[in-house]
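Data availability (excerpt). All sequences and predicted token strings are deposited with the supplementary files. A representative entry, Permease prefix domain 1-containing protein, is shown inline so that the format can be inspected without opening the archive.
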Amino acid sequence: MDTIRNYLESLFIGVPRSNEIEKLKADLLANMEDHYHELMGEGKNEQEAIGTVISTFGSIDELLEELDVKKENPSPETESNPASIYLSEAENYWKEYRAASLQVASGVLFTCLSFAGFLFFCSTGYAFMGVSCLIFGIALAVGFFIASGMKITRLNHFLYNRKIPEKVLAEAKEKEEAYQRSFGFSLIAGIGLCIFSLFPLFASILWYMDGSIGASGFFVTVGTGVFLIINGSLVRHSYRQFTQSTYSW
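Structure token line:
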């Protein structure tokens, strides 16, 4: 609970003190504590609950705008000592970023699959099924892109200009090193599938097959390859966000 209180205090650095601000802070703390206890009741561990509460909370800028309150210019001491990122926040960031990475990669995959389905069904005389597959696949992909974009923006926002302690940096380096093997597999397999995706096209030409079937195979194969490359690269990027910065976010 001290982690949540300290985080809330760091958000109000530079905000002029008043009864209205103190009431706002008390209300926010009560809401955050209630959310924390709800998550604990759902079976989450303490670090995961704290990280989820903090990442869900976000920024107080909009609340301050509604109250017509502006932050004071931070002192040199405050600028040189930004609030530190807690390990629980970093753990939650990596978990949420991994989920967002999967959504981005899935969006690309569903886009490719929608074109593959469209070409395949149209070539077999089921044009309605082909169009339905195209519309549904693209709509699903757009939903994934929007959701992942909002999530990544929110995650980066609450970690902006925060100091990275040695403990968090060491954990990030350990996770990045542990992920290297998975990243290498994703990259090699993804590139291999992208190259192999040309085979269905050439096969349909050489064996006088329907070109639509070859094109469908191309989209399925290249979509799977790009899925592996994007997902692996974004997960690795979430760790490098910490390891490539020696001081602050």
